[in-house]
Write a structure and sequence with these properties.
By secondary structure, the protein is mostly helical. It has helices at 2-24, 30-44, 57-74, 79-95.
């Protein structure tokens, strides 16, 4: 179970970096950027479907949104933008101390 969670966190971390680069790309549609912003605001917002102060349950909706919402959103990115964002994220993560691999 913990091995699967570790893989999930690494994948979500990589997808967050890819999403960041995709949102910074000038060819990315405004609608895509707004959806990414809404996901980020929901995760950071103190107002949630399940309050964060509920032990572990409060984080469940945030983790679920990150694990399912970001990969789903990335499917709507233009192909060229997504390819460049993945390459930029890979360069960054390969230079980083942790590598997220």
């Amino acid at each position: 179970m913990f091995l699967r969670l570790g893989r999930l966190f690494r994948a979500v971390g990589r997808d967050i970096v890819v999403l960041w680069y995709a949102c910074c790309h000038p060819a990315t549609p405004l609608r895509f950027k707004l959806l990414a912003l809404l996901i980020g605001l929901y995760v950071l917002s103190p107002v949630d479907m399940l309050p964060d102060w509920l032990a572990l349950l409060g984080w469940f909706d945030d983790v679920t949104l990150l694990a399912l919402g970001i990969p789903a959103l990335l499917k709507f990115a233009p192909a060229g933008v997504l390819q460049q964002a993945r390459a930029a994220a890979e360069r960054l993560l390969s230079r980083s101390r942790f590598g997220m691999r």
